[in-house]
C-alpha cells in the first residue's frame, strides 16, 4: 500500500545529538526525516487502529507488526517528498552546481582513473573530479523524478535543483520547562527548537508492505511535539514508474544512489564489500567498488517506547550518497536491478526504510 502522509501543523524531527533541558538551550532537528520516524509512527498507528497496546504486548500482531520484543514482517520504502504530481529526492552527491548563468542547473563530476602521481590513502581506482575552471559549490535542495530518471539513465541534459524554500521553512519555537507541582517556570530551563512547516502542497509518500488490513485513512502522530498527520492511501503510479525504469548496464558498470540514509556495519562500506579488495558479492552478483561520492556520516538513534530506553546510536551514510561498481561476473542488467533497484540495502534496520537504493548507469 502506498500512503500519503500530510502533516497538519509544523513537525519536529530530532537528530542523534543528545539534548537535555538545563544543559543545552538549542535542540537540533533534521529534514527530511529519517525512515525510522515513519516506521515507528506507522507501527503505532496500526496498533491503535486495532485492539490497542495490550493486544500488541500479548503478541497478537506478531506476523505483521511484531511485538515489543521483535519486529514482524512489516517493511517500508521511503519516506519521499511528494506534491500530488511528482516525487522529490535528495540531490545526488556526484552532482555539483557551477556558478554562472543558471545556478539551478546541475553538472555531474567526471569519473576518471586515479592518477598514478596521486599519493594518499585514497582507496579507490577511480576518482570523481570537476575538469572545468568555473567556481563550483555543493548544491542544496532536491531534484524531481524526471531529473532523477535522466540522472539514473546516464543522461545529464535536464538536471535542475529545486530550492529548499519550495518545500518547507523553519520556524523557531521558544520553550521552558515547568515545575510539576506548581506549574511555574524552572529557572535555567529556557530552550529553543527549530520546527519545520511544509508548504501547503507538500507531503510525504511511503510504501508499506506485509501488513494485514492496513488502514486506508486516519490520523497518526509524527515526530516530536505530539503533532498529527493525515494518512491516506494513494493510487499513484509514480513509485511504480520509478521501480520499472529501464537502465542499460551493458558496459559492465552501475551506480547505486541512496534515496534514504543507510547504516552499514563497516562505516561507509556495506558488509558485503571487503575492506581491502573492495570486492564483494550480493545474492550472486559479484562486484567491485571503484569510487564513491559520500556525504559526512550522520548519527541516527531514537527512543524505544516499548522498553523506555534509548535505541543504539549508529553512524549512517546520508541520503544522496552514490556508489560506483564494476560487475565482475557478467550478470545481466535485470539481475543487478532485481538485487539492488528500489531495495533497502542497509545492513541495519532495512525493514525500517534505511538504505533505499536506485540503480543507475554511468559511462566510462
Salient structural properties:
seven-stranded antiparallel sheet, mainly beta, Immunoglobulin-like, six-stranded antiparallel sheet, 364 residues, 12% helix
Q: How is this structure best described in words?
A:
The chain is mainly beta and 364 residues long. The chain folds into 3 domains: 2-83 and 168-238, no CATH class; 87-155, no CATH class; 241-360, Immunoglobulin-like, CATH 2.60.40. 12% of the residues lie in helices and 34% in strands. It contains 5 helices and 24 strands. The protein has helices spanning 35-49, 53-57, 145-152, 238-243, 333-340; strands spanning 2-7, 75-82, 87-90, 95-98, 106-108, 110-113, 126-129, 136-137, 142-144, 168-178, 185-198, 203-209, 217-221, 228-233, 253-258, 279-282, 285-293, 298-300, 303-304, 309-310, 314-316, 322-327, 343-344, 356-360. A 7-stranded antiparallel sheet has the order 9-3-2-12-1-14-13. The protein has a 6-stranded antiparallel sheet with strand order 16-17-22-15-24-23, covered by helices on one side. A 3-stranded antiparallel sheet has the order 5-4-8, with no helix packed on it. A hairpin with a 7-residue loop joins strand 4 (95-98) and strand 5 (106-108). The longest helix is centred in the first third of the chain and has 15 residues, at 35-49. It is globular and about 70 Å long. The protein starts with a strand and ends with a strand.
